[in-house]
Every structure is written in C-alpha cells, then in structure tokens.
Design brief:
Elements: H1 2-16, E1 20-29, E2 34-36, E3 38-43, E4 46-52, E5 62-73, E6 75-80, H2 92-98, H3 101-117, E7 120-125, H4 134-143, E8 151-153, E9 159-160, E10 181-182, H5 185-198, E11 204-207, E12 209-211, E13 218-220, H6 224-236, E14 241-245, H7 248-257, E15 261-264, H8 270-278, E16 282-284, H9 287-296, H10 308-323, H11 342-350, H12 355-361, H13 364-370, E17 385-389, E18 402-407, E19 410-413
Parallel strand pairs: 1-5, 6-7, 7-8, 9-10, 11-14, 14-15, 15-16
Antiparallel strand pairs: 1-2, 1-3, 3-4, 5-17, 12-13, 17-18, 18-19
Helix pairs in contact: 5-6, 6-7, 8-10, 9-10, 11-12
C-alpha cells in the first residue's frame, strides 16, 4: 500500500508542476504596438507578464532565446473551413457530394496541424460544408490532445434558406443532401438555431444571400424579420452570429438584425459600411478566397491586369476602411491551402491597410471580436505566442518566417 501511495503521490506531484518560461526575442509586438528589448514570462497556460527583463527569480524557469525575432500573439484565422481543401484540387460540389466523412476528417487533421505550425493558434470555423458536426468532434480531439491544432470555434452545419444552397447540378426531382442546414420561418429557424447550439456551435452562421434560381447573381435569402429572429434566439443563448453576405441588401439586413460579423462583404457600399460601423458590426473580408479562385479560373497574377471581381473587392475593402468598420482577419481558407493563412494579412496590406492595423486584425481586434482571452501579450491572456523572423510591422511577409509557436504555454515549434 505504501508503494502504491508513493507512486500516486509522485504522479500527482508531476501533474501539479507548472512550466515557466522566459522568452527573449529582439522585440515584442503586443497586439497594439512594438516594443524593443522586451521579454515575456509564461507560467502554465497564461502570460505572467511582459516588459523589460529584471532578472530570473525561479531557477526552474526555461529560457528560450529568440535572437532577431519578433514575439507576438498567436495569429487568428477568423474564417476557416477545416473540412475543405483547395478547389483547384477538387471542386466544392464534389467535395461535399462525393468525399466521405472519414476521408474529410482525416484531411482536416493535417489541415489543423499545418495551420498551427504556420502560427495561427485560433480559428473560427464557419461551416462544415456537408460534414455534419465533425468540427465539434475535431475541436474535442484537439482539446483532449489526440491531435495537434489551434483553438477551434465551431459553427457546425451553418444555416441556409431552403433551395438556396448546394450541391447543385442534379436532376430537380432528386433531393440532394446539402452543404448546410435548411431552415425557414419562425418555427424552423428557432428550432435549427437552438439545435446547432445544443450540438456544440460556438457561433451560429447564417447565409444572408446567395445565388439561386433562374435569376443571375446573389440575392437576399432570409427576410429581415427571419434574420432578427435567428439573431435573437442565438444571442439569448449567449452565442454570437456570423452572416455570409455579398450584396449590399444582404449586408444591410444582417446589420439591422444585430449580427456580430459579416463575412465577405463584396458588394458593400459606403452607406452600408457606415451602417455597419454605427452598429459595431465587424467585417471579415476574405480577400484571399477571391484571389485564389480568380487564379484557378486562369488569371495570371502579376502578369495580367486584375479581373473586375478583384478590382471591385479592392474598392469595397477600401470603402470599409474609410468608414471605420472593424476588420477581423479571415481568409476563407479551405478554398486555398491550409497553412497559407498569412495570405489574407498580406493582401489586406496590399489593398491599403497599414501593416500594424492588419496585424491587429489578426491579434488584438480578433480577440475582442471573438470574445476570447487571446490576441495580446499581457498578463492574464492565454500564452498563445509565436515568433517570426524580422519585423512584420515593416515587412508583412515576415509572417511567413514562423520559427516558434506556443499554444496555452506548451511549445509546439522552436528553432
């Protein structure tokens, strides 16, 4: 019995030990501004402090030297689809209709690992695209240490109006399983929103407009009253709402309904962006998705003029900046390769956003919009930290040189 007691005491003692780190980079971007000569203390899964080094009191502290590097908060991917892979490999219709759940989940394991190693320590996944509630279970697998990946905010199946989504292209008399869950009207929307929350949705995602039927182009799908109802039901449960909207009217309805973020916003006008700013609705612009699909369609970037779609997106993004809309960095990754998420932040700077603001959109602003204790290098925040070669406030491509990744106080990658 004594030997058994000593064994369990030793195990519990080992579990009780808390790792402490002192991280020594050349500079620290704290989510708001840059600081030369700072160090960062980490204890357990939280940041203990940041500032000028005054000595190490604890001899058990592990010192990590990061010469020449910028230490900063782990980056946030605000619009991910971990269960999709690049459309130039397999088109969306075939991924949803022809690839089985186990195959898609297996791919997602690799996607999550690549995302984390690229320095993105949190993702908001906005729809499983036909893969049911796999995002909730993948989140559980990450949290239990079964697989490696970022923190995951799940939205499960997403919600669309009947007849508006896909897969498409089948005989009209066939009833094809959809890439999102259909709901309409008071009873149906209330039930579906509550059901998705009950199955683990951290965010509810609605499709506020889409291209459907014989009329070309995207059109609003839910009425303003329907959208208000869905938002009220979700907010009553403490769950925020994201809305896919690419038309000015879809964006207007979403804003007036009280949603928390609007995704894409391609057709936004100065008037709609002004309304969003007044109602404190954030925009997740997903610049990288259109950049990727335009190249899949044949655009030779850097060799040919920008297609009309890209020029229009550049214009609408600048209008959002001019209106003072809060920008949450989000790329729609899955359309292109996971791990290439920095592409969005690079494009935001290319489209006219100052580098510091682009970094904030993926760190401190993201933490605020997503209601999480992340995105800043300060005491009490989760110790989600990365180090990149060089200074990303001067050259945003420095985000490609991730040499150190820590998530929740655990070192994932180091030089």
């Amino acid at each position: 019995m004594r030997l058994l007691f000593l064994f369990f005491a030793a195990v519990l003692g080992g579990l009780a030990q808390t790792n402490t780190y002192l991280l020594r980079p050349a500079r620290v971007f704290d989510g708001e501004s840059m600081h030369d000569g700072w160090v960062v203390w980490v204890k357990g899964d939280r940041i203990e402090g940041a500032g000028r080094a005054t000595g190490i009191d604890d001899p058990k502290t592990k010192v990590v030297e990061l010469p020449g590097a910028t230490l900063m908060p782990g980056l946030v991917e605000g619009h991910s689809h971990m269960l999709l892979h690049p459309y130039n490999e397999t088109v969306w219709n075939d991924q949803v209709a022809r690839e089985g759940l186990a195959l898609r989940a297996a791919r997602a394991v690799n996607h999550l690992r690549a995302t984390l190693l690229a320095g993105f320590t949190t993702i908001r996944d906005l729809g499983t695209e036909g893969a049911g509630y796999a995002d909730v279970e993948l989140k559980q697998a990450v949290n239990e240490g079964i697989i490696s990946g970022p923190r995951i905010l799940a939205s499960t199946r997403a919600i669309v109006a009947t007849g508006s989504y896909g897969p498409k292209g089948f005989a009209p008399e066939w009833r094809i399983p959809q890439g999102a869950e259909e709901a309409d009207g008071v009873d149906s929307l209330t039930r579906v929103v509550r059901d998705q929350i009950g199955r683990g949705a951290d965010w509810v995602k609605l499709y506020g407009d889409y291209s459907a039927g014989s009329v070309a182009g995207a059109h609003p799908t839910f009425t303003l009253e329907e959208m208000k109802l869905a938002v009220e039901v979700a907010h009553s449960a403490g769950v925020p709402v994201a809305v896919h909207a690419t038309t000015a009217e879809g964006m207007r309805r979403a804003t007036l309904a009280g949603v928390d973020t609007i995704e894409h916003g391609d057709g936004g006008t100065p008037e709609v962006f002004k309304l969003m700013a007044e109602h404190h609705v954030a925009l997740c612009p997903t610049l990288a998705a259109g950049d990727a699909t335009s190249q899949y369609a044949g655009w030779k970037k850097g060799q040919q003029p920008e297609p009309a779609r890209i020029a229009a997106k550049r214009s609408s993004f600048r209008a959002a900046l001019a209106a003072g809309v809060t920008i949450l960095s989000g790329s729609d990754v899955g359309v292109f390769a996971h791990g290439d998420n920095a592409r969005e932040i690079e494009l935001m700077t290319n489209y006219g956003m100052p580098a510091v603001d682009a970094l904030k959109s993926a760190t401190s602003v993201a933490g605020h919009v997503l209601r999480m204790e992340i995105g800043q290098v300060k005491a009490g925040q989760f110790a989600d930290l990365i180090a990149v070669t060089g200074d990303p406030t001067k050259d945003i491509s420095a985000l490609r040189g991730v040499q150190f990744v820590m998530k929740g106080g655990v070192v994932i990658k180091q030089p």
